[in-house]
Structures are given as C-alpha cells and as structure tokens.
Design a protein that fits this description.
Length: 64
C-alpha cells in the first residue's frame, strides 16, 4: 500500500514538472513556454526522458 502511494506521488511530481515545462507556469524552469517550432528537439527530448522515467518507476514498483 505504501509503495503504491509513493509511486503515485512520484508520478504526480513528474506530471507537475512536465506541465510546468510546457506552459512555463507552476515551476519557473523555463521563463517562456516551449515553442514546438524552434525548440522541437528540446521539447521531444524532454518528453522522451520523462516518459522513460515514468516507465522506469512503474517497473521498479512492479518488481517490489
């Protein structure tokens, strides 16, 4: 039960960071929102990294 709770918190934190990256609100990671034309490589690389992290956390908590 505790493991599921921790996993949910971690996924929520990752989602908050993702939303803040895309909108430029919540957390001041980027001062401006990411434009898909200029920063498409950055956009997709960040997206890929976060999807990978979510999958890794899911696998870790499935094993435990």
């Amino acid at each position: 039960m505790l493991k599921i709770f921790v996993a949910a918190i971690v996924i929520l934190l990752i989602l908050i960071v993702l939303v803040s990256l895309f909108t430029g609100k919540f957390l001041p990671i980027y001062k401006r929102p990411i434009s898909r034309d200029k920063d498409s490589f950055v956009f997709y690389s960040i997206l890929a990294v976060f999807i990978f992290l979510i999958l890794v956390f899911i696998k870790i908590f499935m094993k435990v």
